[in-house]
Each structure stands twice: as structure tokens, then as C-alpha cells.
Design brief:
15 helices; mainly alpha; 413 residues
């Protein structure tokens, strides 16, 4: 018996729009701390405060976006969210003071949070049910490709033009292209909606998936680690490691690891081995973060020539390992959260795992800036390694069994 077609037209369109969404996001991410420092003279802790507002607002919008995606026409919700997300990039061009930039950046997190939930839920809708677990894993490839290309392109554009305005225009144009692609997506006809008595429209479980709470808590640890490394990598590399031109390559290798893990882990996802994928990914990431933290130690243990060689090998090797680990872990956690939810709670399940990631990212951005200001970047990244290790321990001691007890899909484990 032949399998249903995975790469259908609508699925490819949603993936392309998702690429545009994350390209617009990541093309600015590594350079915004530099922009705030150079353009407004912001200190490290102020940078952390300004940038964390985006994630905090996204976090506040996630639960409501999950509810709206499950309760109203998904295509309409998707298009409104995408339009708002694109328009906000023009606000960066208009913001002439640090206060105005902070307001625009903070408000921009709202449509971003809602859009990521809406787009990923639409992706699930256009997937054939027999290929859904595998398709969710491959969906993340569009994020990963954007993460591989966008920071590198952004850094090179800035290197040759020294124009942040050009970067803001680039993000705006790419976001508008994503909106156009999503506007052509055709969703399957919805089946009869569940009655209000079956699912109270304003119950807490319509905003946050209570059945998956521990999966969400566990994801906070990993979001924290990536929040620190993605926002403070460029400054840490320059000030502590003396690596001035490698940030784009770091993100590219991290994304290469993410892409390879999706391809390598596809078989395990098809076989429903979610806990295996999650566990292997977490351990690989922990090795990567630990190697990254040991970079200053490596540089002090060897001669100058060996030091430069060792630091660069460890620096880029850690990027590959972190990407490889997160690429295994993320789709496994997303699928596990969906598997403990009922079919009409897909939006809520998606928003729950994204809420958790946002909490971790927000804490990482905010506390990362504060820790760096008072204790230095080296101490900050040791905290990252410790938090990642705590997340791994939590999974093996509690989260894995929590999922297996609540799993509603007998085909996965």
C-alpha cells in the first residue's frame, strides 16, 4: 500500500512562508545588540532588557493565539498575524530614540508569537494524517534554513554597507513575500466543529495545554540556553574569544547541524521514537554547550598557534553539535505535546510548546544581559551549561515517564 504524499503543494507553500518569517527574524537577531550599543549607546543590561521585551510580548500572545487558531478560521487568523508581523519592521526604520525602538520591538513580539502558532498549525492541517509526525519534523527545516542563511547574510550586508536601515528594509520585504505565499494556501474543509459543551471556549485548557505542562517546563531550560547564545554570541566572541568574523559561520554551522538532524532523525520520527529523538538530541546539545564554555580554557592551555587552532575548532564544532542536538530535540518535544492533546487542541498544543520556548528565551535574553554586566560573559555561559544539564536531568528523571502516561497516540513512544 502506497503512502500518502507528504510534499503536497500547500505544505510546501506553508514551509516557504515559514522560511520567510524566520529569515526576517534571524537576519536582525545577532546584530540588534550591536545596533543598540552603537546607535543608542545602550549598556549590556539595557540591551538585555530591550531585547527581552519582544519575547515577553510573544509569550503573552501565545495562549490567546492558540485559542483563536482553534476557534476561528485559521486562514484569516494567519493572514492578519502575518500582515501585522511584516508592518512592524517599518517601525524600526522610524524609531529615532531608544524608547521608541523599545516600544516597537516589544510590540513586535505579539504578531510574531501569534504567527508562529498559526503557521505551524496550518502546516499540520495540510499534512496527511499518516505522515503528520514525520511532516512536523521536516517543517522545522524551513526554520533551520532561515537560521543558516539569515544571520550570515545580515552580518555580511552590515559588514559591506554599515547600514542597519538596509537590514530593516530587507526584513520588511522578505516578510511581505511570506505573506503573499501564505495567501495562496488552500486549507482542507473543516469537519463539524465540536460543541461548546465538549470544549468550554474560555477554559484554561484552551489557552495552555495542562496535560502537557511538564513537557513545557522542560522546554524552558533549553529555550533559556538558546536565548543567551543567539543574542550574545557576537559580543562574547569579540570580547572574550577574540573571534570577530565568525558569528555568521557559527550560525550557519549550527543550522547545518539542525538540518542534518532533521534528515537523520526522520526515520526515528516515522517509527514514532519520540523519546529516543528527544534524549539523543539533549545529550548532543549538552556536549556542544560544554565544549563552547570550555573555549577560554582551551585558549589558555596551549601555545598561541595551537590556541587559535583549538579555539576555532571547538568554536565551530560546538555550533554543529548544538544544532544537531536541538534539531533532534525540538520536533520530538513538539510531537510529544501534540500527542497528549486532542485533535481540536492542535493550536493550543503548538502554542504551549512555543510559550515554553519563549519563557526560556526571554529569561535567557534578560538574565544573560544582567549576568554579563555583573559577572562577565564567561560566567554567563557557564550558567547556560548548568541550565542545559538540569534540563537533561529533568527529562530522564520525570518528563519521559510523564509523556508515556499521557500519550494518546499508540503509534509513538
Amino acid at each position: 500500500m502506497s503512502q500518502e504524499r507528504l510534499w503536497n503543494r500547500n505544505y510546501c507553500k506553508v514551509m516557504a512562508a515559514n522560511f520567510s518569517l524566520f529569515f526576517a527574524f534571524y537576519v536582525l537577531t545577532p546584530l540588534l545588540p550591536l545596533y543598540l550599543s552603537e546607535h543608542f549607546g545602550a549598556t549590556k543590561d539595557v540591551i538585555g532588557l530591550v531585547l527581552s521585551g519582544y519575547t515577553i510580548t510573544a509569550l503573552l500572545f501565545r495562549p490567546f493565539s492558540g485559542y483563536f487558531v482553534d476557534s476561528f478560521p485559521r486562514k484569516t487568523v494567519l493572514m492578519v498575524c502575518f500582515a501585522a508581523f511584516a508592518i512592524f519592521f517599518s517601525g524600526y526604520l522610524a524609531a529615532s530614540t531608544l524608547l521608541l525602538f523599545t516600544i516597537v520591538r516589544t510590540l513586535h513580539g505579539g504578531p510574531f508569537g501569534a504567527l508562529t502558532v498559526a503557521n505551524s498549525t496550518v502546516a499540520i492541517d495540510v499534512l496527511p494524517s499518516s505522515r503528520r509526525t514525520e511532516g512536523i519534523g521536516y517543517y522545522g527545516l524551513s526554520n533551520n534554513l532561515a537560521m543558516a542563511m539569515a544571520p550570515t547574510i545580515g552580518i555580511y550586508v552590515y559588514k559591506f554597507t554599515h547600514s542597519f536601515d538596509l537590514l530593516f528594509w530587507l526584513a520588511l520585504i522578505v516578510a511581505c513575500l511570506g505573506w503573499l505565499v501564505d495567501s495562496t494556501v488552500q486549507l482542507p474543509q473543516k469537519k463539524k466543529k465540536p460543541s461548546a459543551t465538549q470544549h468550554p471556549p474560555l477554559s484554561l485548557d484552551r489557552f495552555f495545554l495542562l496535560r502537557g505542562w511538564l513537557l513545557g517546563v522542560n522546554m524552558v531550560f533549553f529555550g533559556f540556553c538558546f536565548g543567551v547564545i543567539s543574542n550574545y554570541l557576537a559580543i562574547y566572541s569579540k570580547e572574550t574569544l577574540g573571534i570577530t568574523g565568525g558569528t555568521g559561520t557559527f550560525f550557519m554551522l549550527c543550522s547545518l547541524g539542525l538540518i542534518l538532524s532533521r534528515l537523520q532523525g526522520g526515520k526515528a520520527l516515522r517509527q514514532g521514537r519520540l523519546t529516543y529523538n528527544a534524549a539523543s538530541g539533549m545529550v548532543i546539545s549538552l556536549v556542544g554547550y560544554t565544549l563552547f564554555i570550555l573555549l577560554p580554557t582551551l585558549s589558555s592551555q596551549f601555545s598561541v598557534l595551537c590556541s587559535l587552532f583549538s579555539v576555532h575548532i571547538a568554536y565551530y564544532g560546538s555550533a554543529l553539535l548544538i544544532g544537531l542536538g536541538n534539531g533532534h530535540m525540538w520536533p520530538a518535544f513538539q510531537n510529544m505535546t501534540i500527542c497528549v492533546a486532542t485533535n481540536n487542541q492542535r493550536g493550543t498544543a503548538n502554542s504551549t510548546i512555543l510559550i515554553s520556548w519563549d519563557i526560556g528565551m526571554g529569561l535567557g535574553i534578560l538574565l544573560g544581559g544582567v549576568l554579563a554586566e555583573h559577572f562577565g560573559y564567561n560566567a554567563t555561559f557557564w550558567v547556560v551549561a548548568a541550565v542545559n544539564a538540569l534540563g537533561v536531568l529533568t527529562f530522564f528523571r520525570a518528563t519521559r515517564q510523564f509523556f508515556l502516561k499521557r500519550n494518546l497516540n499508540s503509534d509513538v513512544h
